[in-house]
Fold this sequence. Notes:
Elements: H1 4-27, H2 35-55, H3 64-91, H4 96-107, H5 115-123, H6 128-151, H7 155-160, H8 165-179, H9 187-218, H10 226-250, H11 255-265, H12 272-279, H13 284-312
Helix pairs in contact: 1-9, 1-13, 2-8, 2-9, 3-4, 3-6, 3-10, 4-6, 4-13, 5-11, 10-11, 10-13, 12-13
Amino acid sequence: MTSYWQLLQLILPVFAVMAIGAGLRRVGWLNAEADTSLLKLVVNLLYPALIFENVHANSALREAGNLAWAPLVGFVTIAGGIAVCYYAARVLGLGGAGQRTFAFTTGIYNYAYITVPLMAALFGRESLGVLFAHNVGVEAAIWTVGVLILAGHSLREGWRQLYSPPVLALVFAVGVNLAGFGGHLPEVGLGVIRTLAACAIPLGLLLSGATMAEHLFTRPAELFAWRTSLGAVALRLGVLSGLFLLLAKFGPFSADLKHVILVQATMPAAFLPLVIVKHYGGDSLTAVRGVLATVVASVVLMPLWLQWGLAWLNASPY
Length: 318
């Protein structure tokens, strides 16, 4: 069985790059003014290139079950997680914007920046195609159910967000894959895409670390609150992790999709909601407290959940 130390070694480089991003923000090499343009670069160019590279010739995405189940699982796990956290927040004594923000941030797991390198390390790059299909459902849930709870916007406004470069890149890449054109694309073009794709996750992690650093260095005394911080850890890395593993164990899914669910079960809260909460007028401090607490706790808990989950699902790492 894969040891705790082996799994921790897979995870630490990811957090180390985030720590470097925080350090770059601290010394002023990566300033806040650059965040918007760099984030647009990652989301609109580099991440779509990463998606295309891993989907356009992916045999796992020629299975109808993966194409059908993966987005549905992504949608249900996010929507269900937000719902569980919404009612749990009431038990924790949170109300109003605090309750809605807690549900939104704690219910959304990190589905890209940490997940992609971990999936590739554990199960090989072939597994990333199923992950990206799964993430379409995640995006749909965030921009519909999530935004409705956070800000009360209409479904039409939420679905409009799905016309984005990552989703369009996935649809195009799946079409190329299903048509059998993946092996006939010019190597020059694939080389360009491969080079862009290689930049996506490192730059995303640096930006994530820099975003967290803004709060770490400006309001450190306010970043921990018993109810919010420990409640987020208990839900995101406790209750929801267990529910996800039950889904992976007993769901009618392929091995690739079970692997995706397993890794998502171990994830801390995502970083993207920090930006969305600010945009829609949520409680930013509640959001930061939940995200930061789950990120710190995940350094210890993620390898434990992975070790136990791999054994329970009888899954073999790559």
